Amino acid sequence: MKNTAKIYLFLAILFLASSFKSFTQEKVDDLKMIVENKEKAFIDEGEFIRVNFMISGLYSGHSVKPYVEQALLIPEIKKLNISNIVDQNGQRRGYVLLKKDSYLSALSTTLNILKVKEIDVDNKITDIAGYIEMCK
Q1: Are 112 and 127 in contact (CB under 8 A)?
Q2: Which residues does residue 90 pair with via DSSP β-bridges, in sequence order?
Q3: What pTM value is reported for the model?
């Protein structure tokens, strides 16, 4: 009977430990930018270009504040906004407002700040350099 209780206790601890690890684990180094429609992703706003996107891999417990603060240190980046999507854990909607005369290099910088590893453009996967080349 003691051995059975020990086994159950061990299994309970193992279950709790694995649940806690998966609950707190953040996949911030596997971020993917999703561009559902390349033509609608870029919006001319006078002096600025607004780039709309979705980010996959940023879970609700992960703060985007450090990314935003770092991005706003770059003179070509006017604003970076990333917000949660209700009922879509791990996906967030965002946009970045970039100075028009240098928006492609500023977009590349933004994606590097966010540590985006791949970009899904109309269901085709590419990296940051490939995406910037597509946008030229």
Answers
A1: no
A2: 58
A3: 0.75
Find the helix or strand (DSSP H, E) in which 128 lies: helix 128-135
* Cα dihedral across residues 111, 117, 120, 124: positive or negative: positive
- Give pLDDT < 50 ranges for the chain: 21-28
Domains of the chain, with CATH numbers?
A: 27-135 (3.30.70)
Q: Nearest Cα to 119, choosing from 34, 28, 30?
A: 34
In degrees to the nearest 10, what's the CA dihedral of 43, 121, 118, 22? 100
Phi and psi, residue 47, nearest 5°: -75, -10
Maximum distance among all Cα pairs of the chain, rounded to whole angstroms: 76
Can you give the pLDDT at residue 27? 44
